[in-house]
Amino acid sequence: MAKITVIGTGTMGSGIAQASLSSGYDVTMIAHSQKSVQEAASRVESGFDKAVSAKAITQEQKLAMMSRLSVSDDIASSAGSDFIIEAVSEDFDTKEGVLKSAEKYLGAGILATNTSSIPISQLAAGLSRKDVFIGIHFFNPVPVMKVVELIGGDSTSPNTISKSSEFVKKLGKTPVEVKDSPGFIANRLLMLFINEAARALDQGVATKEGIDTIAKLGLHHPMGPLELADFIGVDVCNDIMLEIFRRTDDKAFDPAESIKRLVKEGRLGRKSGKGFYDYAAKA
Ligand code: 3HC
After folding, report:
1. Quick check: CB of 261 below 6 Å from ligand 1?
2. Which of 7, 100, 184, 239 could be disulfide-bonded to 90 (CB atoms 3.0-4.6 Å)?
3. Full-model pTM
């Protein structure tokens, strides 16, 4: 296998591109506008710069890996890929539209979605090549996180699952097969944790710093739940919670008042400079 196409140039798309380049693949990124085409390469490059700073790779290695990256705003550039991986925003209609367009250029490859919570069989319903469609759910930051959820839909073939598993292993990550259900495993666990932390904050049980310190020092988490919400994107967490809530009717996933309020105010976390915490003030 040689060519990977990643559709979407956000945090997850650029992380998947970086991880694939690091493992020797040629990567094509598909952006939705000319502006995003320009931003995509610099986002991937700044990911590699972190690895250079950590002395994990040299500047020469970075340049060699970047030379295998191409970015286009034409989805036809995905033709001939071994994997086309969709990583656009967590919205059913957006994902379905992108997947239907990508399917036309699939050839002998596999079509994957990086959805965090939408059932694979429902996304597959509008596709004609259901046997080669699968969920490959990466974690942020993709180059660093070592596990990937693999989710087959009702019609995903065993061959698609085993090829996807091989691909994930080539990226140096551990694939774990998960049944097609709302939020899979990671977000079923994580969103409850983040939501409960936000509820405790809303009830005045502790300060945000206090909640995060308890999770870090008492539970040995690398980040507290509210810091992590800012890192993932408060809007992304809200979307995932609503998706699981709608599909399970479990009130535990109904976003806490503070999460709803932050989204309404555009305080989406690190990417917008403010979320539970104020990053502009720290800069
Ligand atoms: N490429 C290569 N290496 C990178 C990198 C990148 N893009 N970004 C960071 N790194 C490396 C750094 O160079 C550093 O390497 P070193 O240990 O060899 O020096 C290492 O990763 C750690 O990075 P930092 O020193 O910058 O920062 P921290 O030690 O504070 O760790 C963190 C940062 C890895 C983000 C850590 O805080 C963490 O693990 N947080 C929790 C993240 C998490 O839970 N993610 C899952 C979110 S859920 C999800 O994604 C699912 C979705 O559906 C919502």
Report:
1. no
2. 239
3. 0.94
